Amino acid sequence: MNIAQQPISRRAFLRGAGVALALPYLDAMWPRALAADAAAPRRMVAICTSLGIYTPSLFPKEAGRDYTLTPYLEQLKEHRGDFTVFSGVSHPDQAGADGHTSEMTWLTSAKHPGLGGFRNTISLDQFIAEKIGIQTRFPSLVLGTNNTSQSYTRSGVMVPADSKPSQVFAKLFLEGTKDAVAAQMQKLREGRSIMDTVQGQAKRFGARVGAADREKLDEYFTSIREMEQRLVLSEEWARKPKPKVDAQPPTDITEEKDLIGRMKLLFEIVPLALQTDSTRVITILVQGRGDVPLVDGVTMAHHELSHHGQDPEKIRQLECIEKAEIHALGGLIAALKAKKEGNGALLDNTMVLFGSNLGNANSHDTKNLPLLLAGGGFKHGQHLVLDTKNNTPFCNLFVQMLQRMNVETDVFGSSTKTSVPGLV
Amino acid sequence: MQRVSRSFSGVPSLHSSLRLTLLAVSVAALNANVAAAKADGPAHVTAFLEKHCTNCHDATEKKGGLDLEALPVKFNTEKDRAEWVKIFDRVLADEMPPPKKARPDAAAKRALLEAIGGGIVKVEKAVQAADGRVPLRRLNRLEFERTVQELLGVETPMRHIIPNDTPSHGFDTVAEGLRISQLHIEKYLEAVDAAIPEAMDFRPPAESTPKRYFYKDEPGVKKQFEVADGVADPKNQNKIHRQTLKELPDAIVWFHGGYPSPELKQFSVKQAGRYRIRISAYGHQTAGRNVMMIVYADNYRARRSLGYFDIPPDKPRVAELNVALNAGEFIRIEPSGTGYDADGKSVNNISAPTFKGAGIALQWAEVEGPLAESWPTPQTKRLFGDIPLVEVPANKQVWRKNRKQPYALKPENPKDAAQKVIERFARRAFRRPIESGEAEPFVKLVTDALDAGKSFEDAIEVGFRAVLTAPQFLILDERPGKLDDFALASRLSYFLWSTMPDDELLALAAAKKLAQPATLRAQVDRMLASPKAHAFTENFTGQWLDLRNIEATSPDKRLYPEFDQVLQNSMVGETEAFFTEMLARNESTANFIHSDWLMLNRPLAEHYGIESVTGENFQRVKLPAGSPRGGLLTQAAILKVSANGTTTSPVIRGAWVMKRLLGTPPPAQPADVGSIEPDTRGASTIREQLAKHRSVESCATCHRDIDPPGFALENFDVIGGWRERYRSQEKGDKPPGKINGRGIWEYKLGLPVDATGELRDGRKFKDMMDFKKLLLEQRDQVLKNVTENLLTYATGAGIRFADRTEVARIIASVKAKGSGLRTLVHEVVESPLFLNK
Question: According to the 3-state scheme, what is the secondary structure of A73-123?
Fold first, then answer.
């Protein structure tokens, strides 16, 4: 299903885009299906920086709306009314195999990641994708600065992240040739007969296994059935033309140390993918690395800086990196605000969750997570201080977000309530 | 009950072997006599619990989270059993009742343990009898890749396409973690789509006579020499041309891998396949030292290392490689660790004719390939039998994988041929004979495609895709009870080769001979002698010893300028070679703690300060007297994966030793105790920081055990080098040594290292050599740990309570035969745990 393996030449792009360049995507064109029901679709974007965020520079001293801007929130000051900062929120029981295993559970809340017979549970985005993903060409987009993601299927399998913006752009917006589309359709149909055949084989196999193993075979059965459904849907989508956008295909940044550059490039895809309703759920994992990121004023490795040991110089350099990350988030919020949809902005229908799985990376602490929620039509503009001793379950916020996505549920993961007090 | 404290000292070691014996005796006795234990079980159990336990562990106190009132004396559920196993272990280890309380009567204690142990074993054995010890298990990502490659006779990489597996009980071969999802099916299809066309590339090999290329003919090189050194660039009069390459009568000298790149573009791969590459080179201006040469395959987008070679000074050496190359790739040859002269000046600032630093003089490179003994290839014959390959007129040739195919399969009767091809393929893919009618649906897919007008190859492809996503292929077909010969062949093969069984194993299975002990022994020896067994070393040590994390951190270049790719590769190479050597020579597992020999190549020997080892290959080297090395813990790979790139932490290394070497992981940090924030302000060494850390009693309980091994390892830096002083960026003295023949200006030598420590029982050690002597008393624990890890990896299930008797038996038997690693592998394979599902 990978469309473009190689960078797309300008010529190929022009060919693929056809009249796209002459006919930019216009708000007025959007979307026929939606014209019927008045409400725009709800979306969610979840962004995590896995090496933590230095919270003394993030959390304001005061609770409520009149907080004094902190060095990090200074980066977002023009959007002050568009987001809420949370303190006192985390997933319970995150002591895991090592200091960074909570990275796997940021969107799932499964307990004790990586220990013994640990099995991850479904992530927030994949849960949404299961419910409403059928309505879009891509049930979800899983993006990352490398191939690791925080998106996990119902069976606890990590969905590999797309890390090449050029490829994501191509799969979202670049149309294949007529022959390529025909070959693609043929392949999808073949895929369905293959699924039919192997399903028969699983019955044969299942006839002779014990009760305990039948569960495993059921897992296989379900996978095959879901694959069939996926193929049917893909066929339908393959028949429909892809949306056209007024944007150039991005050129990938191959320098892995350019964390901020790579992060921004992924962020640029977000408004395009959402506004064309190509997907409604996106996760982005910004994976900090063991080397020196290309950020002015930074000379030490990112991971080492996160273990600053209160060394003021290390904290200063860490702040340089994290300010750049939060500044990039500001760029994304601005882009979502700039896109109009109905009577408001794309941001009004898009929840952007930003934060980290580490509350204090210096000691690998998973309590009091740095968290920020923008958009989605909530009344923002405050620092919401919850229980910093006995943290409010992060999943309570997840349930509230799910309900905002019009996904009917009262529970998710380790939730104890259906909302976070103070967030309306 | 969360905090099971495990001591790190000689006394508990004695204690733990006692524990083993007692366990073996009690559980074995119980297996025979479960009924008796059960008859008077509950009453005496309840009495014991009431007398010694429920004071603290009742509904009101719930000390350590344990409420015995809420825990039934029943072992039916997994959850209850897990709870009882913890109680069993604490009581057995005399950790409960706590030392300050009244000691239970020995006979009562024994009766309690027999009742609990026997109860658990009984239930677990019943479950194992019904379902088997190992749940159905699918091929993991690496096994899938290797098996598809072997089936199709291709070398297409696929692992990057398939979702990562979640290791369970430490290994990605464990059934519990190997889930199946729609995503897997999607990615399997994508992966086989990449591989199958490779197997249907029927082009006859291009001419494969060796051709010799010279660097002086490279356009980039010619350009360098067009303008004389020190003369103004004709195109840019303001710029003085500086040559960075040096021309000798018989060679071109390269000082580094930068511009102009040492690429050999006169040759590029037209047809993927195996190639023989020979390169003639010698060291130039190396002051009598050898220099490393790395050979890469490059395609402008990515480069991969094909090998590295130790090149002697002034006298040419011909290095030879036999490698698989992909279409579009070309060769790139670089020196490693060169480019600076003794004063630290780069060739780029001096220019080649006057530069005095070391480089590699490349004479020529010779390429031959694609190598093929015959055409059609044996792989083609294996898949398609004697179906004729017929030449296709140019205008009718099809494109497959961007290549025009001048030959096509032309069977006389396509449908009959399809049936034969698919049946043969399914038999190999399913690793057993196919049942009557089993291949029909797959054949039908192909014949339907033929009816729809597809070419024979395209139709067969549909069938192959179906076979490779069928459950019989993806899942190991094991049924409860004793494994049949074919299931055994697969288990053996995935254990030692990480791929499907070969013809010999399948033939023995068909003859029902494989399970015979003598045959099994001979087969294990044969399999370990095969190059395929490297997968066992790589995948087992990669996970047991964390070698897969070798790239997780990059050492700070300013603190560790001597670190490079060759050294990193050598690190993993050493530990793998060490394991393989132990296996080959049946060395005692005590060598994991300490050995008087190592497997070294030149870069690593120099890194360890050991002289007179040359070459890139690993050789067995006897350690000089007084060397702190020997055993696993002082190997550079281990020291690197247990550090963070800049600093070492005795806590992380200590925990690593407990977890990986001893198999007694420290308990997870308790949830009710907050993290202690590391604070480096005012504290000058890591030891002082830890002293603060340990002064908090709740931490000290465990850190008394965790920290000592880490302290002993403080003499080893983040890349495994020996240090007596910490490296520093600011304060300190200029280091006296040299790196690759040049001075060191990047770092200074700071505070001295203190590697002394004290075990929980008060015994002191002054450094690693000393500490290893204490650690050797734990050799039984190490043997137990390796045994459990091997059993887990080999069978695909973690060690259960009911397995303990068998584990103890294996250990006793291996010990009696000298504790050899190969003996252990044999014992594992011959164990009922391996021979049964």
Answer: HHCCHHHHHHEEEEECEECCCCCCCCCCHHHHHCCCCCCCCCCCCCCCCCC
**Closest residue on chain A to B472 (Cα):** A205
A159 to B163: CB separation less than 8 angstroms, yes or no: yes
Which tens digit of pLDDT belongs to each residue from B777-817? 999 999 999 999 999 999 999 999 999 999 999 999 999 99
The residue whose two tokens read 């003394």 is A56
Query: Chain A: nearest CA to B29, how far in angstroms?
Result: 29
Tell me if B294 sits within 8 A of B565, measured CB to CB: yes
Which of B2, B3, B166 to mutate to probe the A interface, most A CBs <10 Å?
B166
Determine the straight-line distance between the first and last CA of chain A, rounded to whole angstroms. 41
Contacts of B168 in chain A (CB under 8 A): 116-119
| CA-based nearest residue in chain A for residue B479 | A209
Strands A392-393 and A89-90: parallel
Rg (CA), chain A: 22
Most B CBs within 10 A among A112, A140, A157, A159, hence the mutation to make, goes to A157
Half-sphere exposure of B113 (CA within 13 A, CB side): 25
What part of B 681-700 touches A (C-beta under 8 Å)? 681, 689
Residue B556 has pLDDT above 80, yes or no: no
Q: Between these two residues, B168 and A354, which has the higher pLDDT value?
A: A354
Nearest-neighbour CA in chain A from B43: distance (Å) = 33
Contacts of A226 in chain B (CB under 8 A): 181-182
Q: Which residues of chain B from 533 to 562 reach within 8 Å of chain A, CB to CB?
A: 552-554, 556
B134-143, B197-206, B632-641: least confident range: B197-206
The residue ranges of DSSP E strands in B3-161, in sequence order, are: 137-138
Question: pLDDT value at position A1?
Answer: 38
Which tens digits make up the pLDDT trace of B689-726?
Answer: 677 666 777 778 788 889 999 999 999 999 999 999 98
Report pLDDT for B687: 76
Please state, in angstroms and rounded to a whole number, the distance separating the CA atoms of residues A37 and A32.
10
CB pair distance less than 8 Å for A193 and B462: yes
B236-240 and B232-233 as β-strands: parallel, antiparallel, unpaired?
antiparallel
Nearest to A216 among B136, B465, B798 (CB): B136
* Residue A207: predicted pLDDT: 79
Scored b (16 or more CB within 10 A) or e, A60-87 reads beebeeebeebebbebbeebeebbbbbb
Q: What percent of chain B has pLDDT over 70?
A: 92
**pLDDT reported for residue A16:** 36
Distance CA A364, CA A57 (A): 17
Q: What is the pTM of this model?
A: 0.86
For residue B272, name the pLDDT band (cuts at 50, 70, 90): confident
- Name A387's Cβ contacts closer than 8 Å, sequence gap at least 6: A88
Interface of B with A in 648-677 (CB under 8 A): 668-671, 674-677
Kindly give the parts of chain A with pLDDT less than 50.
1-37
Which sign does the torsion angle of CA B743, B744, B748, B749 carry? negative
Q: How far apart are the first and last CA of chain B?
A: 32
Q: Give the pair of three-digit tokens for residue B703.
A: 């850190």
pLDDT at A97: 75
